[in-house]
Structure formats: structure tokens, C-alpha cells
Amino acid sequence: MANLTHFNDEGRAKMVDVSNKRTTVREAVAGGTVQLNAETFGLIMRGEVKKGDVLAVAQVAGIMAAKRTFEIVPMCHPISITGVDISMTPDEKYNTIEIRATVRCKGETGVEMEALTAVTAAALTIYDMCKSVQKDIKIGDVRLVRKAGGNSSIPSVQAVCISEAKGTSKTPVPEILVKENHGVVGDAHAGEGNRQVSLLAAESVDKLRDMVSDLEPGAFAENILTSGICLHEIPVGTKLGIGTALLEVTQIGKVCTNDGCNIKRQVGECIVPREGIFAAVLKDGIIKPGDSIELERDHD
After folding, report:
1. 0.85 exceeded by the pTM?
2. Whether 68 contacts 3, CB under 8 Å
3. CATH number assigned to the domain covering 24-148
4. Which is it for the CA torsion 254, 221, 209, 38, positive or negative?
5. 160-207 pLDDT, tens per residue?
6. 7: which strand partners?
7. What are the residue numbers of the active site?
């Protein structure tokens, strides 16, 4: 019982004290599935359910539930949520609706319970609005997909990759050598300019795993795959200490000018234009999986 954080020394329930935890940006993603029959699924898709727009109402329900999770789950803390995004993906082949909730905050404790509650409330709303036409709707597979942030989530390198040709996937390697004002030695994208090294967060790749399950490191031509950090929200000019190297963020995203690139053909969608970042090398060094990432912002 001593290992259960929600019990005190007397064995009674308590709310965990998070006073000493560091305030950090935290994110949690949860998912769940609503299984319908063909008739009910069709009514929802055609907007013919008598109670109204099912998915729109369910989306609002999920957002409301995330904000009030502490009133539903006894030991949850009131959290100042900074963002809630509920997405619902219908699958006509299986008559299912996949619900995905992403919740973010800046605080001392995580938001996985808020994300899970949001998914559950959205699913229950779909059930409630459709129960008059189908009694055996099934809600299932409610789970935490991923979480990031917090004291236990240190930004780090998950993989390093190179490729010999532009527009192709990269291959994971044990380590990479980056050279000042050049980029990754042996990589096709190396050279002068502001896009010497490309970085992508593993959390961004996870968003596409429902469509493509076998996404290996380098699938989006990233040199460095990271974890525990929301890369596309890092300001341009931020310096990144990785391994023995020092990089500087030069660009967030890019315009994808080649719709027929190998990456898009193989994966179906390229997330680099939205969530990939690019950096220039300020100091030579070696970068390898497991290296921590230290952020240093310039101050005015």
C-alpha cells in the first residue's frame, strides 16, 4: 500500500500533494471508439439524427468534461487547462467513430485524466443522442495514447537518421556528426543555409499511427527524432544543446512544393510542413539516441 500515492499513512484516500513539482507544459492524448450499426452510422453522417448534430454536440461535451474532471474523479486536482482539442474520425467500413482528445496545461500535474474523461463524455454523448434508434451501441478501447511533459519527461533524442537523396525516407544510424554551418555529415540535405538539420517530435509521428502503423524513425526525412518536447512551439532563435553539439532553430515547418515526394507516397501524409523544425549548426558535435536536449532562449 505504501507504493500507492493516493493513500496516506493510515491507509485512507488522499489527494496527492504536488506543491514541490516543477511547473511545466504538459500534454495528454486519449482515444476511444464508438461501434454503431450501419443504420445509425448513416443517420449520423447524413445529419438525420433527430436530436441534432451528433458529432458537434459530442465535441462540446468532451471539452466541457475535460474542464470539469476534478468534479467527477475525486482525487483529481483542479487544473488550469490551456487547450482541449477533440477530433472524431468516422470509419464507414466498420461503422465506427474514433474519438481522440488532446489536452494541454501548464502546471504541476498532468492531464491524462482530463483527456480520458473527455473521450468518455464524447462517446456517452454519441450514445445518448442515438439510443432511440440503437440500444446496443458499444463504447470501447478507451485508453491513454501518450503523454508528454512533467519532471519525468526529459526532452531527449529518440533516433538519428541520414539519407543519401533528397525527398526520401532516412535510415536510422547509431550516431550522427554535425558540422558548423554545414549540417549532418553524409546527409543529402547538408550544406549552407537555414535548413541544415531537420527535427521532428515522436509525438507528432504518433498522430498518424492509426493510419500507418509501421512508421519507423526517418520516415519523414527527419535527421533527429525527439521525445518529450513540443518542437513546433519552440521559437525561432532558440538554441538546442544536444549531445556535444549546439544547434539554433531557424525555421518552423516548411512549404511542401513536391506533392509526389516519396515520403507522402509511402506514408499518405507529410507532417513536416506543420510540425517539423529546422536548425543550423553553431558548434560541431556528435548526437546519438538517448542524448538529452537542453533549450536556451536568447533574452532581450
Report:
1. no
2. no
3. 3.30.70.640
4. positive
5. 999 988 877 889 999 999 999 999 999 988 888 889 999 998 877 876
6. 13
7. 128
Handedness of CA 189, 193, 197, 202 (dihedral sign): negative
- In this structure, are residues 231 and 200 in contact, taking their beta carbons and an 8 Å threshold? yes
Domain 156-296, CATH number (from 2.40.33.20, 3.40.50.620, 2.40.30.30, 2.60.260.20): 2.40.33.20
Q: In terms of Cα–Cα distance, which of 189, 269, 190, 204 is closest to 234?
A: 204
Pairing of strands 183-184, 176-179: antiparallel
Q: For 245, how many CA atoms within 13 A lie in the half-sphere containing its CB?
A: 27
Place of cell 556535444: 244
The C-alpha cell at 273 is 510542413
**What strand order describes the sheet that includes 171-173?**
171-173, 156-162, 224-227, 197-201, 277-283, 245-252, 239-242, 293-296
